[in-house]
Amino acid sequence: MPTPLPLDNGHLTTEQTAQYWRDGYLFPLDVFTPEEAAGYRAELQEIEQDWRTADLPQPINTYKRVNAHCILPLAARLAQDKRVLDAVQGILGPDLMIWSAEFFIKEPNTTQIVGMHQDLTYWGLGETSDQVTAWIALSPATIASGCMDFVAGSHKNPIMPHTDTFSETNLLSRGQEIAVDVADDDKTHIELQPGQMSLHHGLTFHGSGPNTSDDRRIGFAIRYLNPNARQEVADRDYAMMARGVDFSGNFIHYMPPTADFSPESLRLYEKIRADQAKALAQGASDNVSLYSKNAAAS
Q: Are the C-beta atoms of 256 and 74 separated by less than 8 Å?
């Protein structure tokens, strides 16, 4: 495992910020203790167990994968944690909004992958640098368990052509893959211990392989924006304020949920998902199940 990067009182150093802008990613950063990560994992798995057979409007996997912070206090709490925000502030500045948050889970000894792609391709946010993804490991992210692979410097490209595969083994909403060959030698394995975090730019080429280990690979991805970002495709978009102020008014703000799957949160969740679908499903040749009216389990 790589040696954690030493933070300056919880904040990125000048050199680390420069490294992020050079490579398009930065890792590993210690944000939670292993014990805290284990506690968050246990809390997530308790939610999975308690709500698995509940009569919810969508399958529970949809809520974990799309805007989990809107419906689960656990997700909002993690995304608003001061230690995470202190590091993210070094990239985006003091005014931070949560655009989305999702749990990426690969079950043990399974074939699911994430195709090599650029995040910003289908978000409707353009080629903005006013966005960063924080990816937090709640279980070991290793080569064997299917950790992410990044391509250094690839964020300096524009949005490249992508192909929708709609593959059942691809965890992405439309099985999207970048339509260029990426050599294995160009990939950096982003191995993380529970409680560690990586940061990456929305244009960075990245993907991940299958989980061949005997443990679940659980990652929590938070997409942060600063108020300079704007939605260019959907008519409306939403964000949860995490720190600072928003003087731009490009997003509709909402408060964190107060309970798991509360009626108010469920109503808000469906409104946000429907409004964002115009961007997230733009140009798809088939149904994008995570954003359709009756989302299938992923």
A: no
